[in-house]
Amino acid sequence: MATVELRFSALPEHVRTARLVAAAVARRAGVDEAVLDEVRLAVGEACTRAVGLHQIGGISAPVKVLLIEEEKQFSIEVGDEAPHAVAGGGASGGGPGDADGEADEDEMGLAVISGLVDDVEVSAGEHGGLIKMTWPTTPPPTILV
Amino acid sequence: MDLSLSTETMGDRTIVRVGGEIDVYTAPKLREQLVELVNDGSFHLVVDMEGVDFLDSTGLGVLVGGLKRVRAHEGSLRLVCNQERILKIFRITGLTKVFPIHTSVEEAVAATD
């Protein structure tokens, strides 16, 4: 199981909470202080994107965030339940019929994530999408004998 | 931390001082402010971001939207920002080429190009 698991209604006001929780857990896990701003921004972008997808798709399910502390690394998974067109599916209706640039903002969010995080995987299927981001951690200082 | 907004006029420029966090929740307030200013005839805007603690792509989208609006009236939108963590977001999205970014309000107000 994830170290910390967070589920929140797909509402913009909860994205800040996800950012704060993610940064706090990342700090505790040993992610470098200098990188915490990037963690905060990247998780915010991923959650913003998920909230947007749920709202556009009228999905009442919560957005799910897993914060996973592992040996030498810390991962964040942000999952949405929006059905994504499978590769090659092209014009399969139900896509975001945005008016003025919502798709652009979605793309910009992904651009920010990929610009910030070296280790990022984006996957999507008909049951939802997942953004997994991983950062290295430094173990707490040990006393040298 | 919510978003704080205040405006001030300096000659033909309108300074919009922004404080707090600009994200998916608060960005609509900034959008409303910029739209209102343009609707009221302020086409030369300086957005002072020195008090901003956090900015994400939603905020960038609002600033780009503001730029589009003022340009439609041959206006300008300049930013004031010295914070590396905020500047980094403009850099990785390539928006440093789109927005004139100044180190002080005075410099932005004096800029004419």
From TrEMBL, chain A:
<feature type="domain" description="Histidine kinase/HSP90-like ATPase">
    <location>
        <begin position="8"/>
        <end position="135"/>
    </location>
</feature>
<dbReference type="Pfam" id="PF13581">
    <property type="entry name" value="HATPase_c_2"/>
</dbReference>
<keyword id="KW-0808">Transferase</keyword>
<protein>
    <submittedName>
        <fullName>Anti-sigma regulatory factor (Ser/Thr protein kinase)</fullName>
    </submittedName>
</protein>
<keyword id="KW-0418">Kinase</keyword>
<feature type="region of interest" description="Disordered">
    <location>
        <begin position="79"/>
        <end position="104"/>
    </location>
</feature>
<dbReference type="InterPro" id="IPR003594">
    <property type="entry name" value="HATPase_dom"/>
</dbReference>
<keyword id="KW-0723">Serine/threonine-protein kinase</keyword>
<dbReference type="InterPro" id="IPR036890">
    <property type="entry name" value="HATPase_C_sf"/>
</dbReference>
<feature type="compositionally biased region" description="Gly residues">
    <location>
        <begin position="87"/>
        <end position="98"/>
    </location>
</feature>
<dbReference type="InterPro" id="IPR050267">
    <property type="entry name" value="Anti-sigma-factor_SerPK"/>
</dbReference>
<dbReference type="GO" id="GO:0004674">
    <property type="term" value="F:protein serine/threonine kinase activity"/>
</dbReference>
UniProtKB/TrEMBL annotation, chain B:
<dbReference type="GO" id="GO:0043856">
    <property type="term" value="F:anti-sigma factor antagonist activity"/>
</dbReference>
<dbReference type="Pfam" id="PF01740">
    <property type="entry name" value="STAS"/>
</dbReference>
<feature type="domain" description="STAS">
    <location>
        <begin position="3"/>
        <end position="112"/>
    </location>
</feature>
<dbReference type="InterPro" id="IPR002645">
    <property type="entry name" value="STAS_dom"/>
</dbReference>
<comment type="similarity">
    <text>Belongs to the anti-sigma-factor antagonist family.</text>
</comment>
<dbReference type="InterPro" id="IPR036513">
    <property type="entry name" value="STAS_dom_sf"/>
</dbReference>
<keyword id="KW-0597">Phosphoprotein</keyword>
<protein>
    <recommendedName>
        <fullName>Anti-sigma factor antagonist</fullName>
    </recommendedName>
</protein>
<comment type="function">
    <text>Positive regulator of sigma-B activity. Non-phosphorylated RsbV binds to RsbW, preventing its association with sigma-B. When phosphorylated, releases RsbW, which is then free to complex with and inactivate sigma-B.</text>
</comment>
<dbReference type="InterPro" id="IPR003658">
    <property type="entry name" value="Anti-sigma_ant"/>
</dbReference>
